[in-house]
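Blackboard transcription, Thursday session:
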Amino acid sequence: MRLAVLSGKGGTGKTTVSASLALALDSCQYIDCDVEEPNGAIFLKPELQERYEVKVPVPEVDPAKCNGCGNCARACQFHALAVIKDKALLFAEICHHCGACQLSCPTGAIHEADRVIGVVEADARGSFLHGRLNIGEPVSIPIIRELKRRVQNGLPVILDCPPGASCSVVQAIGGCDYCILVTEPTPFGLHDLKIAVALVKKMKLPGGVIINKAMNNQQMIQEFCQENGIEVLLETPFSREIAENYSRGILPVQADPAWISRLQEVYSQVERSVKK
Amino acid sequence: MKVAVSATGNTLENIMDQRFGRAAYFLIADPETMQIKAIDNQAASAGGAGITAAQTMVDQGVGAVITGNVGPNAMSVLKAAEIPVYRGTPDPVRKNLEAFKKGALEKIEDTVPSHFGMGGPK
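(Written on the board underneath:)
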């Protein structure tokens, strides 16, 4: 089963939940898809032994063949090319690697060249994976795609997703069997939960909610879930102890064994929902 | 020589837009006659706005640009095209063109960071 953990709002506890689940289950694969700021490794402390560069194709223009017609700049939907004084100027970081410029070139002056935008790292068994996008790079999708190419079959797979509800999240949750939406009972948490729920529904994926940092104010989240027929899988309390442990890199499941069975129960409930 | 001014509206009385790539309009003016052609900046809301705006300057055959701030990508294109950029003031376009004619505007060589004109902390 492929299980995506997302939130909409950042800082609600995606990594706390997904890393805790990874520790609570006997065997699983954990994939940190938050490639702009992966932090699962801080808690799970894997021995990273494999390292693959993630490359994307970007255009390279042969000035000897370029006649300066400007077709490539007009073909590019992302404005990654400009043609100035009969010379093509490339802004590689804006390129979305679609190849339209190459197709539009009448003189065959454009070919594709590899450009490294980040890495995928893994432990020896491939049970822990994360991606890292190089600083300053705006397009994270190819790294998440590389991570998902390494998904293993026959065991639980936990995908720790990026925050938000844009392309990178769509890429991360696509093809998953279930989405756990982690939220917090604040107006921001609810606001972004609504966006995340709309995305998950649009992609026709089943999902449930974990209310983190609950402090007798979770009613607004519960009401929203009830109105929209979304199951609440777990409530975790707003607790100084959990926060202090977190700041030392210790997850609730490591500090208190009771959390292991709570998270195992969450997993069983998700399994039951998926089978339905 | 044609001079382009980034503008908040499509007349000489509108204020210069401090942003280049994401300006509402470009007014292509003849500073001698004060005749203008207004270009609605369609690319302002999309990615690569600065590059597109700079390409527009080239395609329009502009000899100089007056604006507030220029991002790194737009500046690369304008430099490659050898189009000088001058720093205007948040005043009507007409006033900026008059200052340009008198040689009172300073040339911009440096750039502001990417996405500077998209709001957020300054």
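Lecturer's comment: The longest strand of chain A covers residues 48-61.
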